[in-house]
Amino acid sequence: MPLFKHDDNYRKKGYRVIAGIDEAGRGSLAGPVVAGAVILKEGVIIEGLDDSKKLTHQKRAELFWQVMLEAEDVSFGIVDVEDIERLNILQATKMAMIRAINGLKKRPDLILIDALKLSIPLKHISIIKGDQKSASIAAASIIAKVLRDWIMEYYDFLYPEYGFKYHRGYGTARHKECLRVYGPCPIHRKTFKPVNQLDFDFYQQVKFAIERQ
């Protein structure tokens, strides 16, 4: 498989422990950003592994558990809304990635990162569309995506009026309509333009807040 051959090419150059890093939730209007870090075992092929965005919800869940069982090491990092607002989404994404790397039990010889560059003392390479080229990054994208989906399903339980389990916090028409009616909830990224530029109905927000008490 091309994804696995890509990583094997780095192993042939002497890098034995390769970690892939990717994130989920960077473009969302609500919720945390989550990063995954995965070190795959050399010679192990996980059938169907691909960029998480190309997979169905069910297939991602299946591959999540397969990666968890068959990978040499798996870690993740989460940065919540408060830090996203404080830092900005780019720096928050990098923080989540660094937390994921620090959570690995094994020290990587090489880190393959989807698109971003990090200020870390470890050898790392930024790969544009890395989740479509590297097996390690694709596995990390699945870990990050599935974990974040679970978090957003929990938030859907807390704030059911927004439909987080359907759109995961992204800027769909349904989500924006809910924002217009109810205004932002505590997990919305209020510094993001699609949130802070919406025309909220103030009286509707007050009515909604009273009803939730």
CATH fold field value of the largest domain: Nucleotidyltransferase, domain 5
What's the order of the H and E elements? Answer: HEEHEHHEEHHHHH
The main β sheet shows up as: 5 strands, mixed
Rg computed from alpha carbons, rounded to a whole number of angstroms? 19 Å
Give me the secondary-structure category. alpha/beta
Q: Any idea of the CATH class of the largest domain? A: Alpha Beta
Number of structural domains: 2
Give the CATH superfamily of the largest domain.
Ribonuclease H-like superfamily/Ribonuclease H
**In one word, what is the shape?**
elongated
Oligomer: single chain
Q: What are the segments in which pLDDT stays under 50 over at least 5 consecutive residues?
A: none
Query: How do the strands line up in the largest sheet?
Result: 3-2-1-4-5
**Span between N and C termini?**
54 Å
* Tally of DSSP helical segments: 9
Helicity level: 40-55%
